[in-house]
Design brief:
Helices cover 57% and strands 18% of the residues. The chain is α/β, with parallel strands linked by helices. The protein has a six-stranded antiparallel beta sheet with strand order 2-1-4-5-6-7, covered by helices on one side. A six-stranded mixed beta sheet has the order 8-12-13-3-14-15. A hairpin with a 2-residue loop joins strand 4 and strand 5. Helix 6 crosses helix 10, helix 7 packs antiparallel against helix 9 and helix 8 runs antiparallel to helix 9. The longest helix is centred in the first third of the chain and has 46 residues. It starts with a strand and ends with a helix.
């Protein structure tokens, strides 16, 4: 709600400070006193463009500062106009005008002879009808189903795009996979190949050295084996004489028995390392290809094998795209069918309540001297598809209105006058229970009415103020009497300058202002008594 408003140097207003009630605030005053100027001050937070000569004559800077209270939160919006420069602030921080306006729009709704953005925007007609229907839970289900359809559709679009590019991608993946598969390698093979290459490269030397060892250890006439065989009896003889030699005799026997095994191993080894040029070339070529692959991907063999699994998984996914597309299409169809059921339920609920709303509005307008008015809620039905779904349904809803007998209802924006829109807005806001926390500002909504109609308008304003703060300019005592806080805007001339000020009226001053509204300047004791009775009646 708007808790406090401070205005400095706005046209005839040199300085005004208004401390508003959270309920119904009424501004009265003589014609030209500057009541609407205070509304203009609030509008400076909503409209970037400013009228010419808006800054008070002789002053350099215009300031509008508004304090809003939302529960425990305080929001201060401020605008300064200095010659041709405009500065806007949010809680003391300099902000772009668009940000300040966006904040103000969530806090204020202004309804005057020229301010009917709510009614002229047909999107709001559906919003109001849905609030009247009170089917928020159903709308929530539709919104969730709508999000599901869009999620599945996004998934389908992604799959479809992948499908278009998949053949080229699959060919590329197959090339990479074949490149790795052709090496026919597994973890640890690189080390084994490096070791095998060393052996093949030194095969001739290995054969020479192993043959020399076999000859010297075992096969030659003077081999170690033959020499040991000739000397074993001597060793046995010494063992019998010297028991302490037994350990050495055992080692000689062990070595003597080991020499045939060594010879056999070396002979077998020679068979394994026999030089094979084809094998050497094959391993060398495979190592060369591996090194190129490692350099290409900047990966180790282990990392390349890991990438192979990733590439294969991606290829499999692409090969399964058609199956995924079919599954996704089925999910979309199921979600759309569920959405359609909810939409039909929503449509029936709206149509049922639209008739009740129209009848209620017509009866309320009759009390505002619009007894011949007609009001209709019209539907343009559209069946749901993936392309047109919306969280609030696919049907379009618009209010139609006629104030003259014999004239068929037309679109509000085309047939309703400013005064008719103001009264219709008043009726709609008194019916609805929306926008809790928003401040409603009605500028001269009582224009052209009086008597019982004016009293009815006052009662409507008080009803709205039970849910939302209301600020209204009025010329009628039947409306002003309902105020929880009554402001008098008065004008005076001093030093060839016009000054407008705002004061809160209490007790006798309020009675006198109500009397002025009733009788103009011809105030007497009877008028004052009537004003007292009118105020007393409003407190009942």
């Amino acid at each position: 709600m708007l808790s406090y408003l401070k205005v400095e140097n706005l046209a005839v207003v040199e300085k005004a400070e208004l401390d508003f009630s959270p309920k119904l605030n009424i501004l009265t005053g003589e014609t030209g006193a500057g009541k609407s100027i205070l509304i203009d001050a609030i509008m400076l937070l909503l409209n970037k463009k400013t009228p010419a000569n808006i800054v008070r004559s002789g002053k350099d800077k215009l300031t509008v500062e508004a304090l809003f209270c939302q529960g425990d939160e305080e929001i201060i919006l401020k605008r300064e106009i200095i010659k041709n420069k405009s500065l806007t602030y949010h809680n003391g921080e300099l902000k772009p005008f668009a940000q300040v306006r966006e904040m103000a729009e969530t806090l204020l709704n202004i309804y005057g002879q020229k301010d009917h953005a709510f009614l002229l925007n047909t999107a709001n007609h559906q919003i109001f009808l849905d609030q009247y229907c009170q089917h928020g839970e159903l709308l929530g289900e539709m919104a969730e189903k709508c999000r599901q359809i869009r999620t599945w559709q996004t998934r389908w679009n992604e799959l479809q795009e992948k499908n278009k590019q998949s053949r080229e991608r699959i060919d590329y993946l197959n090339f990479q996979l074949q490149e790795i598969e052709s090496l026919n390698l597994k973890q640890g093979d690189e080390t084994l190949m490096q070791e095998r290459l060393k052996i093949l490269a030194a095969a001739e030397t290995i054969l020479e050295k192993s043959d020399a060892l076999v000859q010297d250890f075992y096969q030659k006439d003077d081999s170690v084996y033959n020499l040991l065989a000739q000397n074993l009896p001597a060793a046995t003889y010494l063992q019998t004489l010297f028991p302490e030699f037994s350990h050495f005799k055992e080692e000689i026997d062990r070595f003597f028995n080991l020499l045939p095994e060594i010879s056999t191993f070396l002979n077998d080894l020679a068979g394994k390392v026999e030089f094979n040029e084809n094998e050497l070339n094959e391993i060398s070529e495979k190592m060369s290809r591996l090194e190129k692959l490692k350099a290409k991907h900047k990966l180790t063999l282990e990392q390349i094998l890991g990438k192979y699994e990733q590439l294969r998984a991606e290829r499999d996914d692409l090969l399964n795209l058609n199956f995924s597309l079919v599954d996704t299409e089925k999910e979309i169809a199921r979600a759309l069918a569920a959405y359609n059921i909810l939409q039909e339920k929503l449509r029936q609920n709206r149509r049922h309540n639209a008739d009740k709303l129209s009848a209620l509005i017509v009866s309320e307008l009759a009390l505002l001297e619009m007894a011949k008015a007609r009001f209709e809620v019209r539907f343009e039905e559209s069946e749901p598809s993936v392309e047109n779904i919306a969280e609030t349904g696919t049907d379009k809803i618009e209010f139609y209105f006629s104030s003259n007998p014999g004239q068929p209802p037309g679109r509000l924006k085309e047939v309703a006058s400013g005064g008719e829109l103001s009264r219709l807005m008043l009726v709609l806001k008194s019916i609805g229970g929306d926008e809790t926390g928003t401040t409603f500002i009605f500028d001269e909504i009582d224009s052209g009415i009086g008597g019982k109609t004016a009293e009815f308008v006052g009662e409507k304003l008080r009803k709205i103020s039970g849910r939302n703060q209301v600020i209204s300019i009025s010329h009628l005592p039947q409306i002003a009497r309902f105020a929880d806080r009554h402001f008098l805007i008065r004008k005076e001339f001093k030093d060839n300058q016009t000054y407008s000020t705002a004061v809160i009226l209490e007790d006798d001053d309020r009675v006198r202002e109500i009397a002025r509204l009733m009788a103009g300047s011809a105030i007497n004791a009877d008028v004052l008594k009537a004003a007292e009775l009118l105020l007393a009646k409003s407190r009942q």
